[in-house]
Specification:
Layout (H helix, E strand, L loop, with lengths): L24 H10 L14 E2 L11 H9 L8 H14 L3 E5 L2 H12 L5 E4 L4 H9 L3 E4 L20 H11 L6 E5 L12 H14 L2 E5 L3 H11 L8 H10 L3 E5 L10 E5 L12 H12 L10 H13 L3 H20 L12 E5 H4 L9 H13 L1 E2 L1 E3 L1 H4 L16 E5 L7 H15 L8 E5 L10 E4 L1
Parallel strand pairs: 1-10, 3-4, 5-6, 6-7
Antiparallel strand pairs: 2-8, 7-8, 9-12, 11-12, 13-14
Helix pairs in contact: 1-14, 2-11, 3-11, 4-5, 4-10, 6-7, 8-9, 12-16, 14-16
This protein binds ligand F0G.
C-alpha cells in the first residue's frame, strides 16, 4: 500500500501575486474614524487580510483566464452564452438558464414576477439581499430553520436544515395560495454556513409538490453543500460532488445563483428554472415573464448584464468547483481556522461551515448587550489591532430600529463572519488571523460597544455610521 499523506495541501500553485498592505495602528485608528466604524466604508488598501466576504473575491484559474480570452462579445447569440448555458444545465438539469449580473438580480426578477403584497416566502434562512427583495415586494420572508440552529455550540451534521413541520404549519396557517414559492439556501449563510442534507431537500420538495408550490434553491454555495452531503450523509460517500449536486437540483423547480461564490467568478449569477409543473395563474409563462424582466433591467437573455468573458469564466468555474481535490482543500482550510480559534477558547458556530468561520460575539463579549452591537465591536477591534476585515452578521444586519429610539429587540445571534475567499490566502495568512484573534480574546473585557449615529431605511449595515460608547 502506498503511504497515505495526512497533510491536505492547496491543490494549485500560484502564478500571479498581488501585494497586500501593511499599515500602522495609528493609520487604522484614523481610517476607522473616517469610515464611521463601518468596515464596508474602508478602502481595501487599508486592509491587510480581507475576510469581509467570499463573494467575487476568489482567484480565477489559468483555465478561466483562458476562457476570458475566448469570450464572444456579440450582443445576441454569443457562443459564450451557449457554453455557459450548457455548463449550468449539465449541473442543475434546469431547462431555462437566465444570466444575471449577480445573485440579487436573479432574486429581484424571480420575486418581482412571483410575489404579491401579503405573500409569505419560507426559507431556512433568507440572506440579507434575499430578505430585502422579498420585503420590497411587501411579502413576508419567513425563516424556518431547525430550532437547533440557534445554539451556536451544538454540533450537528446538517444545522442548515429547514424545520419541515414548521413549513407544514406555515402552509396550513396562510394557505398555499399565498405562498408563491419555498426556498432553501445551500449552504445556510445567515445561519453559520451550515449545510442542508439531501433528506431535508427531499422532504421540503415533497411538501411543496403535495401543495403545488414551487421550490427553489438559493444555490450560491451548492458545491460546498454537496461536499458536506458526501462526507456526512449516509449513502453518499461513493458519489461524486457533481452527482450529488445534480440530485440536489433534481428535487427543485429552479434556483437563484450568485456565481461570485461557487461559480468561482468575480461577477455574475443566474436564474435557472423548469416550466412550472402546476396549473396556477401566477405560474403561467413564468420563464418568459422572467426573461421579459431581464431585458428591462439586465440585458438581452444571452448576456443578462454580463460580458461574454464573464460567461466563460463562470462556465469553467462551475466545473472546477465540483472537483474533489478543491472541495477537500476548501472545507479543510476553513475548518483549520475554526480549530485554531476553538483551541484559543474563542466561541464559534459549530461545526465549521464551508465558506466561513462565525465567531459567537455574544458569547465572547457577554458584557456588551445586543443593542450595543457586540459583533460590530469585535469586528472593529480585529481591524484596529490586526488589519483584518471581517463582517458582522447579527444585530446590525438583521435588527430593526425602534420608532421611539428605545433599545432594539435582540436578533437570535450576534456573529462575526471570517469569510474565506476561494483560492486566495495561504495557511500562514490564516495562522496570522488566528494569532490576532487569540490576542484580542485575551483582552476581551476592554472592548466597548457602539451606537448607530446614522442609518439607511433598508440594508442599513452597508452604510450605517457608528460611534464608540
Ligand atoms: N444568497 C446568498 C445565500 C448569499 O450569500 C448572497 C450574497 C446572495 C444570495 C446575493 O448574491 O451578492 O451576487 O447579489 N452574499 C454575499 C456575502 C454578498 O457576503 O455573503 P449577490
Amino acid at each position: 500500500m502506498p503511504y497515505q499523506f495526512k497533510t491536505i495541501i492547496e491543490p494549485f500553485r500560484i502564478k500571479t501575486v498581488e501585494p497586500i498592505h501593511f499599515t500602522t495602528y495609528e493609520h487604522r485608528r484614523q481610517a476607522l474614524q473616517e469610515a464611521g466604524y463601518n468596515l464596508f466604508l474602508l478602502r481595501s488598501e487599508d486592509v491587510l487580510i480581507d475576510l469581509l466576504t467570499d463573494s467575487g473575491t476568489g482567484a480565477m484559474s489559468s483555465e478561466q483566464w483562458a476562457g476570458m480570452m475566448r469570450g464572444d462579445e456579440s450582443y445576441a447569440g454569443a457562443s459564450s452564452f451557449y457554453r455557459f448555458e450548457a455548463s449550468v444545465r449539465s449541473i442543475t438539469g434546469f431547462q431555462h438558464v437566465i444570466p444575471t449580473h449577480q445573485g440579487r438580480a436573479a432574486e429581484r426578477i424571480l420575486f418581482g414576477v412571483l410575489c404579491q403584497p401579503g405573500d409569505v416566502v419560507p426559507n431556512n434562512n433568507h440572506f440579507d439581499t434575499t430578505r430585502a427583495n422579498v420585503e420590497y415586494r411587501k411579502a413576508e420572508a419567513r425563516d424556518l430553520v431547525i430550532e437547533e440552529a440557534h445554539q451556536p455550540a451544538l454540533i450537528l451534521p446538517f444545522k442548515g436544515n429547514m424545520d419541515v413541520a414548521a413549513l407544514e404549519r406555515t402552509i396550513a396557517e396562510v394557505g398555499p395560495d399565498r405562498i408563491p414559492l419555498v426556498m432553501l439556501t445551500v449552504t445556510n449563510n445567515a445561519g453559520g454556513g451550515q449545510p442542508v442534507s439531501m433528506a431535508n431537500i427531499r422532504a421540503v420538495s415533497e411538501v411543496c409538490r403535495r401543495h403545488g408550490i414551487l421550490f427553489f434553491l438559493d444555490a450560491c454555495r451548492f458545491a460546498e453543500n454537496a461536499w458536506f452531503i458526501k462526507t456526512r450523509e449516509p449513502g453518499y460517500a461513493d458519489k461524486s460532488p457533481a452527482e450529488i449536486a445534480r440530485e440536489m437540483f433534481s428535487y427543485a423547480d429552479g434556483c437563484t445563483m450568485s456565481a461570485k461564490k461557487d461559480g468561482l467568478a468575480n461577477i455574475g449569477g443566474f436564474l435557472a428554472l423548469n416550466d412550472p409543473p402546476y396549473d396556477r395563474e401566477r405560474y403561467r409563462d413564468l420563464p418568459q415573464r422572467c426573461k421579459n424582466q431581464l431585458i428591462l433591467t439586465e440585458g438581452f437573455p444571452t448576456y443578462g448584464g454580463l460580458a461574454g468573458y464573464d460567461l466563460e469564466a463562470i462556465a469553467v468555474g462551475l466545473r472546477e468547483v465540483l472537483q474533489e481535490d478543491y472541495l477537500r482543500y476548501r472545507t479543510r482550510a476553513t475548518a483549520y481556522v475554526g480549530e485554531k480559534l476553538l483551541a484559543a477558547g474563542v466561541p464559534i458556530v459549530q461545526p465549521p461551515g464551508g465558506h466561513a468561520i462565525y465567531i459567537d460575539a455574544r458569547a465572547m463579549l457577554p458584557h456588551i448587550p445586543p443593542p450595543q452591537y457586540p459583533g460590530q465591536a469585535l469586528a472593529v477591534t480585529m481591524y484596529l489591532e490586526a488589519g483584518i476585515r471581517s463582517v458582522e452578521i447579527g444585530q446590525v444586519v438583521f435588527g430593526r430600529p425602534t420608532a421611539d429610539g428605545s433599545p432594539e429587540a435582540p436578533v437570535p445571534l450576534d456573529l462575526v463572519r471570517l469569510t474565506i475567499p476561494r483560492r486566495v490566502y495561504t495557511q500562514s495568512h490564516m495562522d496570522y488571523v488566528a494569532e490576532a484573534i487569540e490576542y484580542i480574546a485575551n483582552r476581551r473585557d476592554q472592548i466597548r460597544g457602539l451606537r448607530i449615529v446614522w442609518q439607511a431605511p433598508v440594508l442599513r449595515h452597508f452604510t450605517a455610521r457608528f460611534a464608540p460608547l
